């Protein structure tokens, strides 16, 4: 990066240097001078609404706002002169003129920026005698959402929330209504909030106007302890702060603040689904079945029964299948992989996710994928069938910020129009499962323009040709298309200078778990002498159990039953097994079938490192009080030493895991230099169907902010489930289905009845159904929630 | 030497004729000062609504960690404590809770003696504390004629007084000129 010109300036007598374009607030913060702010936020564009940051600049006739003024050469700034102090006191007094004195009941009390600033810079007394502005009669305490609490009387009009909604979330759902002292923050016409309810407006609010409604009036901030953790619900793997009360119970989750690499924001599932693991469905006690009798045991005593079970598994070497899902930390995955190969001596190590595409992606792009910085500095972003708002909202936020704050051009491709399509320059309709065809035709068009291409497609070609720095993001549906898509996208990326690729798998630590545990055919680092003919996908395991070649199954992860496709068949298969050992955080039919069920820590209690989709290495310390038992990796370490392995500390596992990752990264880099696979793309047959002609495609996936079965376990987000079939309006008209009509979907002999909502945001010939809105029985024939989105063709959908 | 002895005896004799200050306790109740800090109670408004809004300030200020609060939202949107417990064995009767209370909800009464046979009985629940509010305490807001601790409250200053005080501040006057 070129050197940015620096300017010298003096703040309060301290001489300092800052890059050109840095704002005064930031320059002062770097040398330890605090300038109070309300409207200013490090991740938002400057506004200058609240005036609390007024400072005096030599030779300037008036005081200026430090949050909007960039540094200048030779500037002499005073932040504590008598004039500034008096002005600040005046601003505070005006802000408080209409602010109610309800701090004792306000949930923000204790972490309220307004409180802090008033205490530090205020006058101490008010001269305001008139009646305060009061919205209570009309819409002051209007209930806009069940998970957010609104008290407009407390608002100081800094507009952080509306700017977050526009610039970061991209929803534009709330705005400022009216003018003057009647100005208030609300949704248009006070309708219920239909946004993704991420709660970021509450997060940035400096007062108690918008607060987290799920903990409304439940506790006070000073009783809560923040514990740094990582959320494992999607592959963004955001750093979080999990707040526990005096009893050690988790009461809320917020984004970490004041950290370099963190994004300061969280999505709805990260913020509100913490209650999922507090409910009845949490597995708290282990069960073991010995001679037909089920015994329960405490989590702390789980070592002994686990050792016994593993001894039994090890006896039958080679007939055990180890299945894991993506909600485990790198260390846990690494240990599982090692135990499977060294102790159990089995080649059958299988991830629950569909991983052919992922494996290929990891081989080529480990350590080279686009990072959040790349997204933010890109001038062109291409979303290939990536419903980011639904699958990985935080990566969506980076895209939104790049578009709304940095002016990046955004183009979307796919069978659905997502929220990002509305802020993009063009949307190119592309059939589900045919993302590879799109990429190949784009490569072709870059060389010679086709005459029959659509206008949108040509726009994308022009943009790609003119881009300085491009980021291509693909969702889980293209990933499911397999290695062919990865090859295609690699070839595209190699043809466009300065381009980066990002694939977004749906599940939590998918990348890390896959690298550390590997799969049957792909053994990371150690043990090259392991047999190469193990099962590699769950269908293989199911077949092998039914044939009788696999007699024991070890399942490890979280929410495992949801990831097993065709559960009834699995259930009968499991009955044949000699041993079924399950490590899960939640109670399910699966854990009741298990010969040994061991409770483990959940998605925010776990300990270990996580590799996010953006290639960031996040560490969860597992320090949350009240977490169930000890961490799984420590249990596995003890287990290994009990079974004759060498004793190893957790820290050394962590360093081994890190080394292993570096090894993968260097391997991926070498693979690029070889250029062996670069031009093999293009010969593969298309996997996409022909929507409209073969019938209506049913796209299944999870609705907004629902990972695994979270919405079915937690009360907060469960209330927003939308059980309707999204259908193209033209299709619906053709099939004579009206909006709100009920239709029956049939696959084989199974049926499910859903209401239809017609929309233009979905491609003609496709319809979308949120899987998690279905009951467990209905979900089964779709193959479990954890399955990547696939297309199912329904003929004669209406009934 | 004899003079000193006589001097001393005269003091003794002096006290002999003064009225007795020793109380016949426990046969007769101990008379406490009007500002005595005894057993707490939780006050109500004239309408019968509890004053406590569960702000947790008393719990926070309590040096003995004697107060336990759990709170929730009522259907009408107001805040209230679902649980308000004072562990009277832990309590050191410093009166900070009463000081910190923004609603005048927790008040230290003048009850000195409240022994029990078990420790468990010394943990006062919210219902017990509400029931302890004296009869005369109801219906007055802020309570003026409290027989238990009449001087316990600082009379709230009227708004006009506050603004008068501000006007009298010398710096303000200078600015005005």
Topology:
The complex is a heterodimer of chains A (799) and B (177).
Chain A: E1 6-11, E2 14-19, H1 24-30, E3 54-57, E4 64-65, E5 75-78, H2 82-97, H3 113-121, E6 148-150, H4 160-169, E7 174-177, E8 184-187, H5 200-204, E9 210-212, E10 225-230, E11 239-244, E12 250-254, H6 268-272, E13 286-290, E14 293-297, H7 303-315, E15 320-324, H8 330-343, E16 349-351, H9 356-365, H10 372-377, E17 380-384, H11 388-391, H12 393-404, E18 409-414, H13 419-423, E19 426-429, H14 435-447, H15 455-466, E20 470-474, H16 476-480, H17 483-495, E21 499-503, H18 510-517, H19 538-547, E22 552-556, H20 560-563, H21 567-575, E23 579-584, H22 589-593, E24 596-599, E25 607-611, E26 617-621, H23 632-642, H24 650-674, E27 696-701, H25 710-713, H26 715-718, E28 724-728, H27 729-734, E29 742-747, E30 750-759, E31 766-770, H28 776-780, E32 791-794
Parallel strand pairs in A: 1-5, 15-16, 15-22, 17-18, 17-20, 18-19, 20-21, 22-23, 23-24, 27-31, 28-30
Antiparallel strand pairs in A: 1-2, 3-4, 3-5, 6-9, 7-8, 10-11, 11-12, 13-14, 13-24, 25-26, 27-32, 28-31, 29-30
Chain B: H1 2-17, E1 40-42, H2 57-61, E2 67-73, E3 79-87, H3 96-100, E4 106-108, E5 123-124, H4 126-131, H5 159-168, H6 170-176
Antiparallel strand pairs in B: 1-4, 2-3, 3-5
Brief description of this entry?
The complex is a heterodimer of chains A (799) and B (177). Chain A has 799 residues and is of the alpha/beta class.
Describe this structure in words.
- The complex is a heterodimer of chains A (799) and B (177).
- With 799 residues, chain A is an alpha/beta fold.
- Chain A folds into five domains: 6-80, Ubiquitin-like (UB roll); 132-275, Alpha-Beta Plaits, CATH 3.30.70.20; 301-353 and 509-661, 3-Layer(aba) Sandwich (Rossmann fold); 359-503, 3-Layer(aba) Sandwich (Dimethylsulfoxide Reductase, domain 2); 696-795, Barwin-like endoglucanases, CATH 2.40.40.20.
- Chain A is built from 28 helices and 32 strands.
- In chain A, the strands form eight sheets. A seven-stranded mixed sheet of chain A has the order 14-13-24-23-22-15-16, with helices on both faces.
- In chain A, helix 8 crosses helix 24.
- Chain A is globular and about 85 Å long.
- Chain B has one domain: Alpha-Beta Plaits.
- In chain B, the strands form two sheets. Chain B has a three-stranded antiparallel sheet. A two-stranded antiparallel ribbon of chain B has the order 1-4.
- The N and C termini of chain B lie far apart (74 Å).
- Chain B is α+β, with helices and mostly antiparallel strands.
- Chain B contains six helices and five strands.
- The interface between A and B is medium-sized, with 14 and 19 residues.
């Amino acid at each position: 990066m070129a050197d940015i010109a620096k300017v010298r300036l003096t703040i309060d007598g301290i001489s300092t240097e800052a890059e050109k374009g840095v704002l005064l607030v930031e320059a002062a913060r770097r040398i330890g001078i605090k300038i109070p702010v309300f409207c200013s936020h490090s991740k938002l564009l400057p506004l200058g609404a609240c005036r609390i940051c007024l400072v005096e600049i030599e030779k300037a006739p008036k005081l200026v706002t430090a949050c909007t003024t960039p540094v200048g050469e030779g500037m002499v700034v005073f932040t504590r002169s008598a004039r500034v102090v008096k002005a600040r006191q005046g601003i505070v007094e005006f802000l408080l003129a209409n602010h109610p004195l309800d701090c004792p009941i306000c949930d923000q009390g204790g972490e309220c920026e307004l409180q802090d600033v008033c205490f530090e810079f205020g006058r101490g007394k008010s001269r305001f005698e008139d009646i305060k502005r009061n919205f209570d009669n009309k819409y002051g305490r209007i209930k806009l959402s069940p998970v957010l609490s609104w008290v407009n009387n407390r608002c100081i009009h800094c507009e952080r929330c509306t700017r977050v909604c526009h610039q970061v979330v991209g929803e534009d759902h709330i705005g400022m209504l009216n003018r003057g002292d009647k100005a208030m923050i609300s949704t248009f016409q006070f309708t219920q909030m239909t946004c993704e309810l991420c709660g970021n407006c509450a997060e940035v609010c400096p007062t108690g106007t918008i607060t987290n409604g799920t903990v409304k009036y439940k506790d006070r901030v000073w009783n809560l302890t923040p514990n740094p953790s990582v959320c494992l619900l999607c592959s963004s793997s955001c750093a979080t702060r999990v707040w526990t009360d005096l009893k050690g119970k988790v009461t809320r989750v917020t984004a970490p603040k004041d950290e370099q690499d963190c994004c300061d924001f969280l999505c709805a599932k990260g913020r509100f689904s913490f209650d999922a693991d507090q409910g009845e469905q949490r597995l708290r006690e282990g069960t073991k079945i010995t001679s037909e009798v089920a015994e329960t045991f405490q989590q702390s005593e789980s070592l002994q029964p686990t050792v016994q079970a593993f001894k039994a598994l090890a006896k039958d070497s080679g007939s055990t299948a180890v299945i894991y899902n993506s909600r485990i930390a790198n260390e846990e995955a690494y240990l599982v992989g090692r135990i499977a190969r060294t102790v159990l001596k089995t080649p059958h190590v299988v991830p629950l996710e569909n991983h052919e595409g992922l494996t290929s992606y990891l081989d080529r792009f480990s350590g080279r994928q686009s990072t959040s910085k790349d997204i933010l500095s890109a001038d062109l972003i291409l979303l290939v069938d990536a419903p980011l708002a639904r699958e990985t909202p935080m990566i969506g936020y980076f895209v939104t910020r790049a578009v709304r704050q940095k002016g990046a051009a955004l183009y979307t491709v796919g069978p659905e129009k997502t929220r990002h399509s509305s802020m993009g320059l063009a949307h190119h309709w592309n059939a589900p499962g045919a993302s590879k065809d799109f990429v190949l035709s784009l490569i072709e068009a870059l060389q010679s323009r086709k005459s029959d291409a659509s206008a949108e497609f040509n726009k994308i070609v022009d943009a790609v040709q003119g881009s300085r720095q491009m980021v291509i993001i693909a969702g889980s549906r293209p990933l499911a298309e397999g290695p062919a898509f990865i090859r295609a996208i690699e070839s595209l990326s190699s043809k466009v200078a300065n381009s980066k690729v990002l694939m977004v798998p749906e599940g939590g630590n998918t990348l890390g778990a896959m690298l550390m545990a590997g799969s049957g055919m792909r053994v990371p680092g150690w043990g090259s002498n392991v047999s190469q003919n193990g099962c590699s996908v769950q269908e293989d395991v199911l077949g092998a159990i039914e044939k009788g070649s696999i007699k024991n199954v070890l399942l490890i992860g979280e929410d495992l039953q949801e990831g097993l496709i065709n559960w009834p068949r699995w259930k009968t298969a499991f009955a044949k097994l000699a041993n079924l050992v399950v490590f899960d955080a939640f109670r399910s039919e699966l854990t009741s079938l298990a010969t040994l069920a061991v409770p483990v820590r959940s998605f925010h209690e776990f300990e270990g490192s996580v590799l996010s989709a953006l290639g960031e290495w996040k560490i969860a310390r597992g320090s949350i009080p009240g977490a169930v038992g000890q961490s799984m990796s420590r249990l596995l370490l003890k287990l290994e030493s009990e079974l004759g392995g060498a004793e190893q500390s957790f820290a050394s596992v962590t360093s081994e895991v890190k080394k292993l990752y570096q090894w993968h990264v260097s391997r991926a880099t070498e693979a690029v230099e070889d250029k062996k696979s670069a031009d093999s793309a293009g010969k593969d047959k298309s996997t996409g169907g022909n929507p409209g002609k073969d019938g209506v495609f049913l796209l299944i996936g999870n609705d907004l902010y629902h990972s695994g079965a979270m919405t079915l376990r937690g009360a907060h987000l469960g209330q927003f489930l939308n059980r309707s079939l999204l259908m193209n309006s033209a299709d619906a008209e053709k099939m004579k289905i009206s909006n709100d009509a009920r239709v029956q979907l049939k696959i084989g002999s199974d049926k499910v009845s859903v209401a239809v909502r017609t929309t233009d945001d979905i491609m003609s010939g496709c319809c979308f159904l949120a899987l998690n809105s279905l009951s467990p029985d209905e979900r089964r024939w779709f193959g479990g929630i954890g399955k990547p989105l696939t297309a199912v063709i329904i003929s004669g959908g209406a009934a | 030497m004899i003079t000193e002895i006589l001097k001393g005896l005269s003091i003794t004799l002096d006290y002999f004729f003064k009225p007795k200050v020793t109380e016949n306790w426990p046969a007769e109740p101990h008379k406490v000062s009007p500002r005595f800090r005894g057993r707490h109670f939780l006050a109500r408004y004239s309408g019968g609504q509890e004053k406590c809004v569960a702000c947790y300030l008393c719990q926070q200020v309590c040096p003995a960690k004697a107060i336990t609060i759990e709170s929730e939202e009522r259907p009408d949107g107001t805040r209230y404590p679902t649980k308000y417990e004072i562990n009277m064995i832990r309590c050191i009767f410093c009166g900070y809770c009463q000081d910190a209370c923004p609603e005048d909800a927790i008040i230290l009464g003048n009850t000195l003696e409240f022994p029990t046979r078990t420790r468990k009985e010394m943990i006062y629940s919210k219902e017990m504390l509400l029931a302890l509010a004296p009869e005369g305490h109801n219906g007055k807001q802020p309570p003026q004629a409290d027989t238990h601790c009449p001087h316990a409250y600082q009379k709230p200053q009227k708004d006009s007084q506050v603004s008068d005080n501000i006007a009298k501040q010398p710096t303000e006057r200078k600015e005005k000129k």
